[in-house]
Write a structure and sequence with these properties.
- The chain has 610 residues and is of the alpha/beta class.
- The protein is 29% helix and 29% strand.
- The protein is built from 16 helices and 26 strands.
- Strands 2-3-1-4-5-6 form a 6-stranded mixed sheet, sandwiched between helices.
- The radius of gyration is 30 Å and the shape is elongated.
- The protein binds guanosine-5'-diphosphate.
- The site of guanosine-5'-diphosphate (GDP) has 17 residues, from helix 1.
Length: 610
């Protein structure tokens, strides 16, 4: 399906934005004959060469009287695709729209006058582009008819490129154009033999708009609503990116639960799969608690669950942000209370000067450190809005996400992690021992616990399988049961670490994805230790005769025999029980833990500040 694309045209006043837009409309045959006549006639009347910017004036008049044309857009067509020109009259309106996603641009054309080069407003627009994430950015060096020296034209383009790159924007192309004469706009110009590149419309025609590339991105569905329909719970949302199909295992964030899709309800009929823009009602195979504001993804590519994050916010309220103030953070369908922990910096995009944030806050761009009251699932660069007293007052991007960690309960507890760490003399930790059955996990876990305890640490060893007799007695050994067991063990580990204890967890946990989820649940205090030994060695040890029974077919799905084990790619610690004896491995684990839980000055101040 061919989708519309949106283009925003930016640049310093008088560098030729309107002329370029008019020229694009004319050259792509998007102006009706009557409008062309009007433009030519009014140009003549004023003794001018054809002024293509007048095409926009005429459109503006119509728009003001809101007659036939789309009231918000100017369109041109390239082949099958329609391109909407997004108006960027003032930076504030543009930013507000762009940052909230109301006018997601697929491409930006930055117009730079060949003679005058990068000027004030060019710089401001470059800064704005740095705040957004426009996938395709083209620099149009305009008015080349008026500049004889190609080196000068190139220099204007390069100056713009350098400035754009400085704010993290990649330039797709620099095109020398004459908007007035049409050089390199819709046709390659004979005037620029030194420029081999494509004309502007060729570049635009070749790009893939967001809506089309969204399908290749990770699956994201923001949950809008959950309702009951003839005996089933339907989770309603719109696919923002990626594709979902019946039978997929989805992951519900922030509650961190995997669940399989049984059906995709839609009207007039159910779907087998759904892609970007599709509104779907997801029905899960097993009941799972889902709520508005949750984010659905595949279990292989999950968003980050955070309570601490940094956002870059363009502020539209007269009243500036205040440290310690509680606002609402809205992202997708999530709407959560968030405290402004710190105002990290403030810039006035009109002057590009650091702003004093007590004064004139409208239009300022602030970097804010936020802490949400409850966990929220986000992706980096997620668009958010900040609301105060029920009204949105800032458009923001999540720039840094701090995965939910040990301090997750800090806001509600009156005892914080630092206080606990000081009382205990060390921080909490989860040492996750993974490895084949009989690799030595439990032996190392129990002995490391004993040694750490002897040295005065708060420590507790948990054998993942013993939890199955209690907390996880209701889950089976299927793939999903196993995953659920791991999730519960990880949650228990997190609680222990939060409480300031060193939790040593021994669990085969063969799947790398499951371990990654455990890490996501526990957060910062998670350490993965790979207890390494070959299948042959483990089988030779076989203290519980499990390998023997698996080989005999009495147990199926036994890790190492007929079920795979994903060797950790980047474990925090390797304990090789094949090469070293138990004493050496225990000593190594104990030293590692002692080092990891040591209170450092920076760790103490970090946990105090959240
Ligand atoms: P905007 O403020 O960026 O929209 O700029 P305009 O499109 O209104 O153009 C400003 C002035 O530059 C007008 O007088 C145009 O005629 C002139 N101009 C625009 N493009 C060109 C060009 O390619 N060559 C020359 N010589 N003049 C141009």
């Amino acid at each position: 399906m061919i989708r519309d694309a949106r283009v925003v045209v930016l640049g310093h006043v008088d560098h030729g934005k309107s002329t370029l837009i008019g020229r694009l409309l004319f050259d792509t045959g998007s102006l009706p004959a009557a409008r062309i006549d009007e433009v030519v006639a009014s140009s003549r009347r004023r003794g001018l060469q054809t002024e293509w910017s007048f095409a926009l004036d005429a459109l503006q008049d119509e728009r003001d009287q809101s007659v036939t044309i789309d009231t918000t857009r100017v369109w041109f067509r390239l082949g099958e695709r329609r391109f909407a020109i997004i108006d960027a009259p003032g930076h504030e309106e543009f930013l507000a729209n762009a940052m909230t996603g109301a006018s997601d641009a697929d491409a930006a054309i930055l117009v730079v006058d060949a003679e005058r080069g990068v000027e004030d407003q060019t710089r401001r627009h470059i800064y704005l582009l740095g705040l957004l994430s426009v996938p395709h950015v083209v620099v149009a060096v305009n008015k080349i008819d008026a500049v004889a020296d190609p080196a000068r034209i190139a220099a204007a383009g390069e100056a713009a490129r350098t400035a754009l790159e400085a704010v993290g924007v990649t330039v797709n192309a620099i095109v020398p154009v004459s908007a007035r004469d049409g050089d390199n706009v819709a046709t390659r110009s004979a005037r620029t033999p030194w420029f081999g590149g494509p004309a502007l419309t060729e570049l635009l025609g070749a790009m893939v708009p967001r809506a089309e590339s969204a399908e290749r991105e990770p699956l994201r569905i923001w949950v809008q609503d959950v309702y009951r329909r003839v005996g089933e719970r339907v989770v309603a949302g719109t696919v923002r990116s990626g594709r979902v199909a019946v039978g997929d295992v989805l992951f519900v964030s922030p509650s961190a639960k995997p669940v399989r899709v049984a059906a995709l309800r839609a009207w007039p009929r159910d779907m087998a799969s759904a892609g970007p823009g599709d509104a779907v009602g997801v029905v899960f195979e097993t009941p799972v608690y889902v709520d508005r504001g949750d984010l659905l993804s595949h279990d292989t590519d999950v968003p980050v669950t955070v309570r601490s994050l940094q956002v870059r916010a363009c502020w539209f309220d007269r009243e500036p942000p205040h440290a310690d103030e509680t606002v609402r953070l809205r992202a997708g369908s999530a709407d959560v209370a968030a405290r402004i922990v710190a105002i990290l910096d403030a810039t006035d995009p009109r002057t590009l000067q650091p702003a004093e944030h007590g004064v004139a806050s409208r239009g300022m761009v602030y970097s804010l450190a936020l802490r949400t009251a409850v966990p929220v699932a986000l992706d980096e660069n997620e668009r958010c809005a900040i609301a105060r007293r029920g009204l949105p007052i800032a458009a923001a991007h999540a720039v840094t996400l701090q995965p939910q960690g040990a301090n997750v309960f800090a806001a509600s507890h009156l005892v914080d992690a630092t206080a606990r760490a000081h009382r205990n003399g060390h921080r909490g930790l989860v040492l996750w021992l993974t490895g084949l059955p009989a690799a030595g996990k439990t032996t190392i876990g129990m002995r490391a616990e004993q040694e750490l305890f002897r040295r005065g640490y708060q420590v507790y060893a948990l054998d993942g399988d013993t939890l199955r007799t209690g907390l996880s007695s209701d889950v089976d050994f299927s793939e999903e049961g196993r995953r659920e067991n791991i999730r519960r063990v990880a949650e228990v580990g997190k609680l222990l670490a939060d409480a300031g204890t060193i939790a040593i967890i021994s669990l085969v946990s063969p799947s790398a994805a499951d371990r990654a989820r455990a890490r996501a649940i526990v957060g910062e205090p998670f350490r993965e230790a790979y207890v390494a030994a070959s299948v042959a060695t483990c089988e030779a040890r076989d203290p519980k005769h499990l390998y023997k029974r698996a080989r005999a077919g009495e147990i199926t799905g036994f890790t190492g025999v007929d079920a795979p084990y994903d060797i950790p790619a980047e474990p925090d610690l390797v304990l090789d029980t094949e090469r070293y004896d138990a004493d050496a491995c225990v000593a190594k684990a104990v030293e590692y833990v002692a080092d990891a839980v040591r209170i450092t000055a920076s760790a103490a101040s970090i946990s105090r500040s959240v």
